[in-house]
Amino acid sequence: MAVIPTARLMTAEEFMKADLGDGRFELVRGEAVEVSPPYFEHAYVCTALGTVLFVYGRDSGNGYSVSEYSLQTRRDPDTVRGPDVSFYSDARLPRSKPGSRLVTVAPDVAIEVASPSNSKAELLEKVAEYLAAGSLAAWLVYPKTRSVAIFRDSQTPPEVFKGGDAIENQPELPGFHCLVSEIFP
Length: 185
Fold this sequence. Notes:
By secondary structure, this protein is α+β, with helices and mostly antiparallel strands.
């Protein structure tokens, strides 16, 4: 991860307006950090999760899924992340509300898909940020082990699902059901 040097820490608003050149960036504690582009497998898993959550939200009327957007998770110094996939209930953030602006409302569920370039510490930092910002759950999805770890707080070990396990009966996703095997190529 390359940090883009600046004379002072950036605010979320400055970051959103900044021309940082080519590449993908997040703002981490006031500093613009370049993130590696994802591999095909990563994109596949994000698409599968986004689709499963989209269909769940549409069919249940409980909300909607989004991917690759700017979410402010922290203030002073500011942090803006780009969750791989998120699910919002309409009660938390109505579909019509965000528009073309920086989202400051944490999703009900924030999902990060591990890439070879991600360290365990980096992924756990993102989980902690999403939960501290107000997410009810944060999922870490590991394509290499074909598993999903669901965190509800930073102090308790996650609930881990593998292979033929079904992710269901999640309090933030009433009526949701998905086999772990459905989200991996």
